[in-house]
Amino acid sequence: MAHPFVSSSKELTQRWSRWQPDGRDHDAEDRAEEQTERRKAGKHRKSLSLKDFDPSDKPFSLGDKAQDKAVVESLALELDELQNLFYADKRYKLLVILQGTDTSGKDGTIRGVFGRMSALGVHTVGWKAPTETERAHDYLWRIHQQVPAAGEVTIFNRSHYEEVLVPVVNGWITPEQHHQRFGHINDFERMLAHTGTIVLKFMLHIGFDEQRQRLQERLDDPAKHWKFAMSDIEARKQWPQYQKAYEMLLSATHTPWAPWTIVPANSKTHRNLMIATVLREVLRNLDLRYPPGDPALEHFVID
Question: Exposed, middle or buried, 131 (CB in 10 Å: 0-12/13-18/19+)?
Fold first, then answer.
C-alpha cells in the first residue's frame, strides 16, 4: 500500500503538508523521515505557534465561493462512492477526528463532508464529559469502545484530545501527567494504525473574533439558542490557555501513523473543501477493491 497520507499529486501534497505541524518547509515523506529520526534520537519536535497559521486563509480554494461549493458537493458524492467501496473491501477501518474550539464547525463539517455517505458503515460519536462509570476507568477506556470495525468509518466530534485540553487549562493534572498522556495517546493511535485503522486528525482553526461572531449568532437566532451554553463564554475567557494547549498537543501527537492537519476554518465552505479533498486522497491511496466473487456463482441462473 502506498503511504496513505501522501497524495499522488506532488503539488497537493506540498499544499497539504504546509498545514501540518513541522510541514511548512518539508514535503510529507521527508517530514515523516525527520519525525522518525527525532524520535530515535529522543528529541522533541520543534515548538509550534498557531499564530503562524492564518484561520482566514484558503489554501485549497479555487478563488470563487460558488465554485468551491460546487466542488464540495461533487467531492461529497465521490466520497459516498469511495465509502461504499471501503465498506465492501473491509481491509481497513477509518477514524476521522474533528477537534476544535467551540463554534469551530465540527457539526457543519459532518453535514457538509460526510452527509452524502450511507448510514451503513458510517457513524459519528459526539464526546461529552465522562460519566461516573467512565471516570472509574482509564481515560482511553471509553474511546477504545467506539473505534471503527473493519470496513467502518467513524467520525469523532471532539475526542480523547479533550483529555489534554480541559484538564491542562484548568490545572487538574500535573505537567508530568500531561506529558504521560501524550505518550499514551501516541501509543494508542500507533496500535490502531498497526491493526488496520487509518487515523486522520483535523484541528479546525478559527480566530478569536470569528468565534465571537458565531457565538453572537447563536444568541441572536432563536433556532440556535439550544447550541449556546454559558460554559462557552467561560472557555472563551481562557482562549490563550487553550491555544497554548492546542499548540502543545499538535506538536506532541503529530506522528507518521496519525498525522494532524490544521484546517483554516473561518470560511465554512473552505473548511469543507479542504477536509473533503484530503479525505478523498487518503481513500484513493488505499487501493480499495471489491472482494472476489464466489466462483460457484459465475454461471448461476435464477429461475
Answer: exposed
Q: Evaluate whether 151 touches 93 at the Cβ level (below 8 Å).
A: yes
Q: Are 201 and 97 in contact (CB under 8 A)?
A: yes
Q: 17 exposed, middle or buried (CB, 10 Å; 0-12, 13-18, 19+)?
A: buried
Rounded distance between C-alpha atoms, residue 75 and residue 155, angstroms: 17
Q: Can you name the residues that pair with 99 across neighbouring β-strands? A: 203
Contact 130, 167 (CB under 8 A): no
Q: Which residues contact 97 (CB under 8 A, 6 or more apart)?
A: 156, 159, 161, 199, 200, 201, 202
pLDDT values of the chain reduced to their tens digit, one per residue, 303 residues:
457 888 878 889 889 999 999 875 444 445 455 545 544 434 455 679 999 999 999 999 999 999 999 999 999 999 999 999 999 999 999 999 999 999 999 999 999 999 999 888 999 999 999 999 999 999 999 999 999 999 999 999 999 999 999 999 999 999 999 999 999 999 999 999 999 999 999 999 999 999 999 999 999 999 988 888 888 899 999 999 999 999 999 999 999 999 999 999 999 999 999 999 999 999 999 999 999 888 888 878 888
